[in-house]
């Protein structure tokens, strides 16, 4: 874990109860903000980008995110959750370097840099309105998971009543057509009966999915 707004990662784990519920937690948990780092070239338009060695050496990364609106990106889901791989000990808190690069560019750059990643988005209780911090709870009762983060996030957007084609990072060259409904192999419940139109702030009204 490498949170962007809180520096005491182990304190957060303590509050969440992980230390008491996970056997050997101290040996298994790594604070990615403080991990040793190595450089990858040409990530998100940057000639050099540093990442935690634990993440770089992983056989598979699972991006476990909450289903939330975002006042700049439109929606924050499994792709934007990769911001947690950016080490705070190099780029600071709250990782504003990623905002200076451009949120969409940073998201797609991380998506391309870590292809061995699966996504799980917890929408049991999501956040609508002025997310990702000051929004309101929305009971959606869904879990979305898949092998491609862009496909997962596009499905989440449809469930939230957001048009994924209007989300910058989902309509990017790096994602290509993987966010389209035609490219999605849906297993389990269809999304349309489960759709709930999340409240959007005024600046994000253009994101509303108008088709049924």
Can you characterise this structure?
The chain is an alpha+beta fold. The protein has two domains: 1-31, no CATH class; 60-207, no CATH class. 24% of the residues lie in helices and 24% in strands. The chain is built from eight helices and six strands, in the order αααββαββαααββα. It has helices spanning 9-16, 18-21, 25-28, 53-56, 88-91, 97-101, 103-113, 149-159, and strands at 37-43, 46-52, 61-70, 74-76, 117-128, 136-146. The strands form two sheets. It has a four-stranded mixed β-sheet with strand order 4-3-5-6, covered by helices on one side. The chain has a two-stranded antiparallel ribbon with strand order 1-2. A hairpin with a 7-residue loop joins strand 5 (117-128) and strand 6. The mean pLDDT is 94.
Give the C-alpha Rg: 17 Å
Main beta sheet: strand number and arrangement? 4 strands, mixed
Q: What is the tally of helical segments?
A: 8
What is the average per-residue confidence, as pLDDT, rounded to a whole number? 94
N/C terminus separation: 37 Å
Q: Say how many strands there are.
A: 6
Write the element-wise H/E pattern from the N-terminal end onward. HHHEEHEEHHHEEH
> Could you say which overall geometry the principal axes of the C-alpha atoms support?
globular
Q: How helix-rich are the residues, as a percent range?
A: 10-25%
User: How much strand?
Assistant: 15-25%
Widest sheet: strand order?
Answer: 4-3-5-6
């Amino acid at each position: 874990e490498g949170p962007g707004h809180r520096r005491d990662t182990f304190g957060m784990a303590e509050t969440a109860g992980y230390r008491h519920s996970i056997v050997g937690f101290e040996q298994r948990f790594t604070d990615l903000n403080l991990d040793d780092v190595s450089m990858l070239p040409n990530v998100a338009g940057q000639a050099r980008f540093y990442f935690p060695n634990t993440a770089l050496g992983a056989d598979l990364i699972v991006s476990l995110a909450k289903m939330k609106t975002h006042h700049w990106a439109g929606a924050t889901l499994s792709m934007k959750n990769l911001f947690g791989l950016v080490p705070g000990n190099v780029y600071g808190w709250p990782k504003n370097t990623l905002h200076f690069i451009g949120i969409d560019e940073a998201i797609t750059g991380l998506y391309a840099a870590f292809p061995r990643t699966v996504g799980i988005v917890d929408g049991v209780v999501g956040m609508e309105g002025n997310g990702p911090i000051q929004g309101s709870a929305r009971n959606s009762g869904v879990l979305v998971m898949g092998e491609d983060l862009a496909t997962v996030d596009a499905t989440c957007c449809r469930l939230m009543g957001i048009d994924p084609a209007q989300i910058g990072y989902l309509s990017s060259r790096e994602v290509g057509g993987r966010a389209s409904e035609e490219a999605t192999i849906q297993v389990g419940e269809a999304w349309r009966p489960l759709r709930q139109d999340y409240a959007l702030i005024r600046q994000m009204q253009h994101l509303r999915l108008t088709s049924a």
